[in-house]
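Could you join me in thinking about how sequence relates to backbone shape in a protein? Would you write everything just below, so we can both look at the same thing?
***
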Amino acid sequence: MRLPVFVTENLAILRNLAKGGVFNAAGLGFAFYVTAICYPGIKGTAAQLEELRSGVLSQSDVGESSLIIAVPALLLGLLVFARHGAYAAIYRTLPFMMFLLCYSGLIVLASIVEAEYLQSSAQIVQYAVTVGAFILCLCFWQAPPQDVDNALAMGFLALAASLATAAAVQGFHDYRWVGLIHPNHYARYAYVALILHSVLVRRVSFPVFAACFAAAYMVSARTVMIGMVTFYLGYLAFAHHRSLFSRAQQILSVRLLAVGMITLPVMLIALPLFFNTDRFVDKITDDLALFDPNRGVLSGFTGRTDSWNVFFDAVDEYVFFGYGFRSSRYGLHAVHSGILSYFMDFGLILGGLLLIVIAGRGVYLVWYGVRVQEFRTLLCGLVIVTSLLIQWFEPDNFNIGFIGAFFFMLCLAYTPRLSRRPERKNSSHRTLAFTAQESLRPEPDMR
């Protein structure tokens, strides 16, 4: 009996880990990092949650102690793992390294020139640590493929276990928090679990997508839900564009379209006869809090625009230098948008340059992945693009203390590995497409 692909690929993941893949420096770092950050939220009490929601406690009060374990474990794991690919990372990403060096020099210079803020020295230290972590992420992707796969698998399993444990222990409440885990954070963790699994198996598995989307739905994280759908549809469109536009597929699509146009009106007429559609619509709007005026400050599009006005009102104050790296942490501004934070932190010139480089990197990876049919490259490009979409409404961009932001950095650092040139046969080029099963097949150890 032949098992479904979803089952076989996940069994292969577990088999590879059981055969020794679990002893993986980066993978252990990911597992400790995720578990340490999620644990305080999972074990939180109802009294602590009320204090957190009322403002007596802050997110920093709840999770700051766990970062003492999480961040060093992550950096140490990546540092040990970097021995596999440090030279290759430097050789293959030399232009990127030069950009980081020049850009970081300008950032430090701007911070010194504009050192009127009390935390400017701490901001420089945080920026240096973050850049160091990003360089380790560049090294991560140059390690042997099987080691990379095992590390991604451990990160995914740690996230999946943490999300499931939080839901089982704390449950989903009307106020959307899962224990002491902020609803938007919980949804971002689910989004990260989806992208880790997708990058690992080089395709977007619908069962994993459905489970992660359901987790985001349960906490009513609308922006993350839009990002997940965009990620999934982008994968379907780019990975299967040839079959979608083939002649046979066009004929099939026309037939399906005709059947759909006939079936849809019939279903719309028949549904009210068997289901209470009004109640169903009310449940959806209640779950997503579409019309909830008490959902919270800065919630939804109208709430976000109130905070975005801070950016436009103060644009003349930081046109060249900005407020410094992660300036929102120090209460220097309250703009609730990761995209606008590029400009708030680094100024219009340097912030705009960084945003252009990141967006361009995402577009390039999508283009290159489609061109050579390398799905891991395509998926990492889609992660960057959809994360930028989410960052319009979420504030975290570069923060190794936040799971969603760190794994965005990890995908941003992805560099396609050097592979064999396309073979020539009868004056035509053939490209090698990777499947999920091939991606999980152990490769011989060449070290």
The chain is about 70% helix and 0% strand.
